[in-house]
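Input structure tokens:
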């Protein structure tokens, strides 16, 4: 009798054990995998949206980027509302056709007179160029985080800066830099050719 009870208990436990196991964890892609899969995407899935929470996560990551004296001069203007999104897309020149289905745009700027400056004076000959440098670092963090989250981007320099300034009420003390589209790819572009390390680096 005891043997029968033992076997019954054993088989019951065996059946229940898989249900008691913790769910499998999702494997986070490595940094190299994120970099390798990132592409400049020019065709987006019109059925998929991007939430404010998603973009807040991206910007939080971008804030981890280094900046001159930690001034964090980069600013972000996030466009999610359909009406304003449609207006902003008309200000992107030839890029309009590339982002017509993108569910979000992020206009990036930087505050002038901060990066590269000390007590109001340019620290070296690069001057305001350090603002662009810092914004580029911040944007790089953002687009790589987007890829980690399964999203895609396109960095655009063709844009009507003053029209965007008016639309988004961007202060004059900020320089309008790039516009980033954000969404989900519908095709997987091939990897473009890259220069070799020996073509771009010198070692001493």
């Amino acid at each position: 009798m005891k043997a029968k009870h033992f076997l019954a208990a054993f088989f019951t436990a065996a059946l229940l054990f898989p249900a008691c196991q913790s769910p499998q964890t999702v494997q986070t892609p490595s940094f190299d995998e994120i970099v390798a899969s990132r592409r400049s995407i020019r065709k987006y899935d019109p059925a998929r949206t991007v939430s404010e929470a998603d973009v807040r996560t991206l910007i939080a990551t971008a804030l981890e980027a280094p900046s001159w004296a930690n001034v964090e001069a980069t600013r972000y203007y996030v466009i999610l509302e359909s009406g304003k999104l449609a207006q902003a897309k008309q200000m992107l020149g030839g890029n309009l056709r590339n982002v017509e289905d993108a569910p979000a745009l992020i206009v990036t700027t930087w505050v002038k007179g901060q990066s590269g400056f000390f007590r109001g004076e340019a620290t070296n000959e690069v001057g305001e160029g350090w603002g662009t440098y810092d914004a580029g670092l911040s944007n790089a963090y953002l687009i790589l985080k987007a890829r980690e989250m399964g999203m895609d981007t396109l960095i655009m320099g063709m844009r009507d800066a003053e029209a965007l300034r008016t639309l988004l009420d961007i202060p004059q003390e900020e320089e309008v830099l790039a516009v980033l589209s954000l969404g989900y790819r519908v095709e997987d572009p091939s990897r473009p050719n890259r220069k070799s390390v020996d073509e771009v680096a010198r070692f001493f």
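Residues 1-22 have pLDDT under 50 and may be disordered. The chain has one domain: 40-189.
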